[in-house]
């Protein structure tokens, strides 16, 4: 029963199952070109457990009605959000604002590739690399909220994919589709009673 968040989503990682938690997700959206979750802006978010990752890529499609108010898309030890139509990434006292603007009421692909203190963002066909002063710590992934879990996204987030690798050889791993693991978070692995 999805309405009661009774569906359990899991990641098989390092020979164990890690549960993905859904908080106050109002509905699941399934269509021909998009499958994802509806975030109501009132306490709804997804928490992917901490896996102590230093190298990973997280990819998703986002649809926002409003791109002027701050909307957190993703948080780890850093935060990715949209405000005044600009995609912004923040870590500690450093902040970078993406020059290309995000459009409201449009399905937008965003991918974030992380390597210790370096982030490469792929945003609607544009790539930009940021290097921060400090390495990122490892925390759970929060989708649709900030690290304090007190500011929430209103919109759709789907086609969520987490690509893992055990070293820094990204190009050959991704080009040959031989990642350490590729985890697709779009369908339940089992249902709760």
Which labels suit this protein?
193 residues, disordered N terminus, 9-stranded antiparallel sheet, disordered C terminus, 3% helix, single chain, mainly beta
Please describe what this structure looks like.
With 193 residues, this protein is mainly β. It has one helix at 170-175, and strands spanning 7-13, 16-23, 27-30, 35-40, 45-48, 55-64, 71-75, 79-83, 86-91, 94-101, 108-115, 118-123, 126-131, 141-143, 154-164, 181-185, 190-191. The chain has a nine-stranded antiparallel sheet, with no helix packed on it. Strands 3, 4, 6, 11, 12, 13, 15 and 16 form an eight-stranded antiparallel sheet that branches. A hairpin with a 2-residue loop joins strand 8 (79-83) and strand 9 (86-91).
Beta-strand portion reads over 45%
Helical residues, percent: under 10%
Characterize the largest beta sheet: strand count, sense, and whether it forms a barrel: 9 strands, antiparallel
What's the alpha carbon Rg, rounded to whole Å?
Answer: 16 Å
Number of helical segments with 4 or more residues: 1
Mean pLDDT: 80
Provide the spatial order of strands within the biggest beta sheet: 10-9-8-7-14-5-2-1-17
How far is it from the N-terminal to the C-terminal residue, by CA? Answer: 9 Å
Instruction: Tally the beta strands.
Output: 17
Overall form: globular
Poorly predicted ranges: 1-5, 167-193
Indicate the structural class. Answer: mainly beta
Give, in order, the helices and strands: EEEEEEEEEEEEEEEHEE
């Amino acid at each position: 029963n999805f309405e009661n968040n009774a569906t359990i989503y899991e990641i098989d990682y390092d020979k164990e199952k890690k549960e993905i938690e859904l908080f106050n997700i109002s509905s699941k959206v399934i269509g021909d070109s998009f499958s994802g979750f509806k975030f109501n802006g009132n306490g709804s978010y997804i928490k992917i457990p901490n896996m102590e990752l230093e190298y990973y890529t997280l990819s998703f499609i986002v649809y926002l009605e409003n791109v002027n108010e701050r909307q957190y898309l993703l948080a780890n030890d850093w935060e990715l959000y949209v405000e005044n139509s600009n995609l912004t990434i923040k870590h500690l006292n450093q902040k970078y604002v993406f020059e290309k603007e995000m459009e409201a009421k449009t399905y937008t692909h965003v991918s974030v590739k992380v390597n210790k203190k370096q982030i490469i963002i792929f945003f609607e066909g544009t790539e930009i690399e940021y290097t921060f002063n400090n390495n990122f710590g490892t925390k759970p992934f929060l989708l649709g909220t900030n690290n304090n879990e007190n500011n929430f996204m209103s919109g759709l987030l789907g086609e969520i994919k987490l690509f893992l690798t055990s070293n820094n050889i990204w190009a050959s791993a991704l080009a040959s589709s031989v990642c350490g693991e590729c985890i697709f978070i779009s369908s339940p692995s089992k249902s709760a009673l």
